[in-house]
Design a protein that fits this description.
The structure is a single chain. By secondary structure, the chain is α/β, with parallel strands linked by helices. The protein is about 65% helix and about 5% strand. It has helices at about 1-20, 25-50, 55-85, 95-115, 120-150, 175-190, 210-220, 240-250, 265-275, 295-305, 310-334; strands at about 160-165, 195-200, 260-265, 280-285. It has a four-stranded parallel beta sheet with strand order 2-1-3-4. Helix 9 links the parallel strand 3 (about 260-265) and strand 4 (about 280-285). Helix 4 runs antiparallel to helix 5 (about 120-150). The longest helix has about 35 residues, at about 55-85. The two termini are about 45 Å apart. The mean pLDDT is about 90.
């Protein structure tokens, strides 16, 4: 029962934090903890009333290595699909590299342990600790990204900003069209006065014109009045998208809250950045091709790790400290 009580308390805390500000990653930590204790508590109750249920958990544990192999195979296959569909860029290699790492790191760790070298064994333990930490952080990120993406916005926006992505031949590709179509739907569903649509994106090195310009053309072609479309054509990052779009909104004399539209895999990071830079905005997501989602989520995860690198480094210090102590103890006994 203790686990269920903790789950209920954490669920209440999650509801309060989410109501206070849904754009916080710590909400995801509390959510995952609540789910963990809830599953543990329910399992404990079922096992008490139906003892053979314990064997189900043993079966799950026995199948864990197979699940890891299946996951690695899926990631490698997805990486190959990404290379074929999206080209040979580093961002498109992430699922392939992760799949190979999932297969290769356990082998490397065993080789280090069997070497009987204290330093090598210490490195194996450090790899285990770091991989475990990254795994837990990724689960938190993924769980809250999904939860945030399913939340309904609760504002009547004065402006809707559409985050840009790469144009192909100066035209809007399907990924970006999904964002723009979502913005059109939101615009049409909004009450009068209609919100200002701000397509935001500068011109990349491989583009023949700014993304904001191409996006604005798409919106007008979809039937949005030109007077309600104000393109922003300087931004090169999500942070700049948010900042420059706010300037466009202010210059247009349309004060009030924003909705930011991006693809579903990008909603959480965009929301975190909006909160960090004090932009009064909620973020909504549009659909993404299924084959693209795993790699896209990994890119977002890597970006969030980079944006919180100091915190992550501090969180990993205890693992490093334990590893050093284990190596020193092993050297002392050798």
């Amino acid at each position: 029962m203790t686990s269920l009580i903790l789950a209920a308390l954490l669920a209440g805390l999650y509801a309060w934090l989410r109501r206070k500000d849904r754009r916080m990653l710590r909400n995801g930590v509390v959510l995952v903890a609540a789910i963990w204790f809830a599953v543990g508590g329910v399992t404990e109750v079922i096992a008490r009333w139906f003892p053979p249920f314990d064997y189900v958990w043993l079966a799950v544990l026995a199948l864990a290595p197979l699940a890891v192999l299946v996951l690695a195979g899926f990631l490698i296959a997805n990486g190959i699909t990404m290379l074929r569909s999206e080209g040979r860029r580093l961002g498109n290699l992430l699922t392939l590299l992760l799949g190979v790492a999932i297969l290769g790191l356990p082998v490397l760790a065993l080789l280090l342990v069997f070497s009987a070298n204290p330093l090598a064994i210490g490195l194996a333990f450090l790899l285990f600790f770091l991989c475990s930490y990254l795994g837990v952080v990724f689960v938190v990120f993924l769980a809250y990204a999904i939860a945030y993406g399913r939340m309904e916005h609760d504002i009547s926006p004065a402006a809707i900003t559409i985050l840009g992505s790469r144009l192909i031949g100066g035209k809007v590709p399907p990924l970006l069209a999904s964002r723009l179509d979502k913005a059109v739907d939101l615009y049409r569903a909004a009450p009068e006065p209609k919100p200002l649509l701000i397509p935001s994106g500068g011109q990349g090195a491989d583009e023949i014109r700014p993304e904001g310009e191409g996006m604005a053309e798409y919106l007008v072609g979809a039937g949005i009045p030109a007077a309600d479309v104000a393109p922003e054509s300087r931004a090169r990052t999500t942070r700049e998208n948010l900042g420059f779009s706010r300037q466009v909104q202010q210059e247009a004399g349309r004060p009030g809250a924003q909705l930011v539209v991006t693809n579903n895999y990008h909603v959480l990071r965009a929301a975190l950045l909006a909160r960090k830079y004090d932009v009064d905005a909620q973020v909504v997501g549009s659909p993404t091709a299924r084959y693209y989602v795993p790699s896209a989520f990994l890119r977002e995860f890597v970006a969030i790790l980079g944006e919180h690198r100091v915190l992550n480094a501090v969180m990993c210090l205890p693992f490093l400290g334990v590893t050093v102590l284990l190596v020193l103890a092993a050297l002392a006994n050798s």
